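We give this protein:

***
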Amino acid sequence: MKVLVINCGSSSLKYQLIDMDNENALANGLVERIGIEGSKLTQKVDGRDKYVLSVPMKDHKDAIKHVLDTLTDGTNGVIASMDEIGAVGHRVVHGGEKYADSVIINDEVMKDLVDFSALAPLHNPPNIIGIRACQTLMPDTKMVAVFDTAFHQTMPEKAFLYGLPYEMYKENHIRKYGFHGTSHKYVSYRTAEILGRDVKDLKIVTCHLGNGASVAAVHNGKSVDTSMGFTPLEGLLMGTRCGDIDPAIIPYLMKEYNYSYDEVLDIMNKKSGVLGLSGVSSDFRDIEVAADGGNNRANLALDVFYYRVKKYIGYFVAAMNGIDALVFTAGLGENAPEAREAIASDLEYLGINLDRAKNKVRGKETVVSTDDSKVKVLVVPTNEELMIARDTLALVK
């Protein structure tokens, strides 16, 4: 069966068509500037030149129609007709407490996704738009929702509750949810395969490090804690997000600077993190170049980020009472040997010993710890699309 994986943003759409008989990606693509002047679709197929289509796309339905037309195009496509697509897997950011697993989409699920939009106002609405567009264009094809929050629904109450009045949790569902769950699940299970171990016998700390970043504690194959919280703003310092701060800073800023609530939210989400500290960029590559050139604030931003990651690793080792594997994934985790070395250094007391020579890799699945390291350190490129496709296949079968 061939599964189409869709990931909709507010003005963008990423997609991948995967042949589940061998789990090979037949095509992957990106549609940008949906509803904005300059819309374009870019599709990549192994062994071919990149295909770019620049046409107006007024909405997501328009964009998905162009995706389907491109996939079935006689010259640039990879399938003869839409009938070859057995199912569509949709990435959905928030599934609340109700969905601890992926689910086939029906009217009840769609109603729930609308309700959960209050918990993820920036993410769930475009996810819903993408689903509805696919339902219109592919009415006879089964659709599956795969939630970023689902993997973390195994967290115990002691891990997900905040120190607020309990009624706020029961009545308004204010609790830690965690995100990047599909990625944390994929790399933890893949780590077990690489090590030839049963994931149910392992204590793994997974570090999803990119412009958005989170750390998770995976004990016996289940998430028992993670750094992101009620929203993706909690936890690590990120590209533009502030991560953990004293909540009293928010009313202080509103009072001292006469900021509105929306202005403070914008600062914390879009103007903070390594961008705010460095004054250079939200892209870690730019910051590394500036740091190498002697920019002190760029160096400081990196030091703060590495320190926060290291702190969460120690936090989660304590939560699981041990660790068998430390895993790095996502853009920075997969491609920045210097970042991995800075984070893993001084953790020898936990049995973590990085091999500097092995660590000089980018984007490659490999073990980078010394042969005698008690804790294995791995680089595992994430594959959220494949994880979504696997869940989709399992449900529709």
